[in-house]
Amino acid sequence: MSDTVDSRPGFHVDMAQVERACRQACASIAPTWPLDQAIAVNPHWERIAMPVRQVAARMAVLGGMRVFPSRTRLRQAWEDGRIRLADVQQALGDVDAAREAGMTAADWLAEMQRDRFPQRLPLLIDVLDRRATGGSLLPWPQAIAHQVSQTCVAFFDEHQADWSPATPASLYDFWRDTLEHDHGIGILMGIPDLGRRLDALPRSRQEAEAWVLARLGLPEAAWADYLEAVLLTVNGWASWCAYLSWQARLEPQSASQPADHLRDLLAIRLAWGALVLDGQGDRASQRSFESVKAAWHQVALLLAKADAELVADEVGQCALEVAYQRELVQRLSGAGAAPPAPRSIEVQAAFCIDVRSEPMRRAVEAFHPGVQTIGFAGFFGLPMAYTPLATQARRPQLPGLLAPTIDVSEGPWLPDASAGADHRQPAWAQGGPEGLLARVIGSRRMHFDRASSWNAATQWPGSAYSFVEAAGWSYLGKLGRWLKPSADRARERDDLYGLAPKYRAICRPMLLGLDLQARVELACRVLHAMGLDDRLAGIVVLVGHGSQSANNAHAAALDCGACCGQTGEVNARVLAQLLNDGSVRAGLTGRGLQIPSHTVFVAALHNTTTDEVEWFDTDLLPPGIQTPWKRLQQAFVQAGDQVRRERAASLALDPGAPAEQLVSDFRRRANDGAQTRPEWGLAGNAAFIIAARERSAATVLAGRAFLHDYDARRDEDGSVLELLMTAPMLVTHWINWQYHASTCEPDRLGSGNKVLHNVVGGRLGVFEGNGGDLRIGLSRQSLHDGTRWVHEPLRLTVVIDAPAERIAAIASRHPVVQHLVNHHWLHLWRFAGAGGFERYVQGAWQPLKDCSGCTAPDRPAGDPFEAG
């Protein structure tokens, strides 16, 4: 191909410039994970190199999307006293543009009364369609979004459709082929000569990009912005394509020369603009076309204007966060006021850092003073992928930022006589381990053959959302259980699917392909990161977490984000097995890490929907720990009851109900196929505390804080802190911003009304209704109770207990951390001396204003919101 394309007489485009502009636009799109691995993602992740207000301006002008809370919500926070005058004044000082402009609290309050929002720049399809819509005619933007979306479904679907057409390797080629044979879309759009127009479109994506840009005649300086705006009209599918590219980069060995689907999608959506422009030769169309070009000539000025208009909105965002931080300071100051009382540690329980663990940890500590709880990432430091026995359904069980490096599957494992457990084998287990394994595999494959509609050898039941249609009458039993939920039905464990009941108790996950040295190294690394390399109790519980819901396409979003949208069961069980292994312990001893012979590691799972705890592999426990074991189980039962009572009111349940009735109510809710709010997930998340438990143990953080244990004294080289600031801190930021974006922009960055969801491609995502763009983010029901928003959109406040210079040094070494802090995507604090706090601002530590004396809300004279 030549360096320039001549698409009109006297008009040339520089192909290098086209390439740069297209790459820049595509680089702005964050990925979205499939439903069966649904992890939270900041939809602005690829834009964090820009300050948050600049991103807010771009999203408003290019996509008509909000980044900050609406002014209606900020006004309501002021009127309710959630935001105080002191909060506004501090925010005015913190936002540079407001301080430099001399904005006052009165100015801010007056600005909040104006419900204005920067105007979105138009695209061609927005202005060229002047037909009277109605009847069979669809508005062009809606029709084009629908056609592009249906094309993407047909191209990417590998799990739902029983038949699919032969698809070219390129999404762009597939779209062209589809459009050549689909005469209906032209009729619906009122363009009967669409096929003729398509003949003028170049055959290759690269030529199409250049041809359309030449046809539009926009200035080169505006190309990247225009292209980003085009992608935002199909942001859901763009995010899916970005996910495919993300995975190809993460695991390059799994894909050779991956197709650039995102560029194809951009070319498709660009081409549609040119197709509707062709044939519009009337003066009105030409005037509309010229108005679009004129507007985009001013894009830089309009972005700057929007940035200035949003200063007050950023002040409101900051004031809302100051209001929460005021409470956080008071709670943490009280927690650390007195040194912890000395106690004998009988049990250590390691929970995921998930905000839903905080109430459970607090309750367990209250009912069993001999338990020391620990916060740690829920994948327990195991960079693993899990493949259920007799399948090829390999799934990651680690944060989406990382690629798995170890593999886990299942195998039959009977109790060992040397452990003191009952090791007598029933008749079906005779024949040795190899014979037993062969029988288990054969039994499971036979079950798969009988239930072939699951396509179980290549996908897993949790992702087979289309099964209700395929199974027909056989699905009525499950439908009946949804409509009449039982309190007796336990959480479904998809990992057991296809296993005969007699094999379920003995099939356990286990590491594959690691020699003893590698297993010892892995165990050593995990224990050091958890701070357990020299102080172990007699019982160490590894508590993963998972949720329970029925008829919920987004069920994985309620499971463990650190396990890539899976439960933490497999990770907890594998780590317990690894650390109970005698040969591994001997290897650790050789490295100077001694696990006491009486210490036992136990795997458990916190059901975050019902707040019950499941225990695993207890048949392998030695009989000598039965007394402390029973006491521990009772403490978890009591703790679960306390947490259920704390949560009951938010779910319209009676917190004063008898214990058995209350747990039954929670179970029924979890099994109810019509229940759109089985639990609130991570709604309300606002802080991440990286510190020893003593910093937060004596206070109630109301399930709003991620808690990761960290002791700087045991991390002499700072390597553990560096890991925490570059992995868990990024994961919590992703979670925080998915909830933030889905709340502030529910129509575009949230997935809409869950009742209207239809699953797309078995696992790709959902439509709201039967078409439109792929919906990403959280549903409205996950954030709103029908009366009010349950989630408060606050940027994460990260509080670290470590030396100031160590935190600053880590931030300076990692551009991504610098972006998050310096561009105001999160707040970075540290515990300082004398019970105070410091915050990190533009490379320097500043003492935090003492908020302990803040009392009643105060108002300026002439408060405009108090007028009748």
Question: How are the SSEs ordered, and which strands pair?
Answer:
Elements: E1 4-8, E2 11-14, H1 15-26, H2 52-63, H3 71-79, H4 85-94, H5 96-101, H6 105-112, H7 124-128, H8 140-156, H9 171-181, H10 184-189, H11 194-199, H12 205-216, H13 220-232, H14 235-250, H15 261-277, H16 283-297, H17 299-309, H18 311-335, E3 347-352, H19 357-367, E4 371-376, E5 384-386, E6 395-396, E7 406-412, H20 432-450, H21 467-471, H22 476-483, H23 501-504, E8 507-512, H24 516-530, E9 539-546, H25 569-580, H26 582-590, E10 600-607, E11 612-616, H27 626-648, H28 659-670, E12 687-690, E13 705-708, H29 719-726, H30 728-744, E14 757-760, E15 765-768, E16 797-800, H31 804-813, H32 815-822, E17 827-831, E18 837-841, E19 844-847
Parallel strand pairs: 3-4, 3-9, 5-7, 9-10, 12-13, 12-16, 16-17
Antiparallel strand pairs: 1-2, 5-6, 7-8, 10-11, 14-15, 17-18, 18-19
In summary, what is this structure?
43% of the residues lie in helices and 11% in strands. Mean pLDDT is 88; it is low at 5-10, 418-430, 453-474 and 852-868.
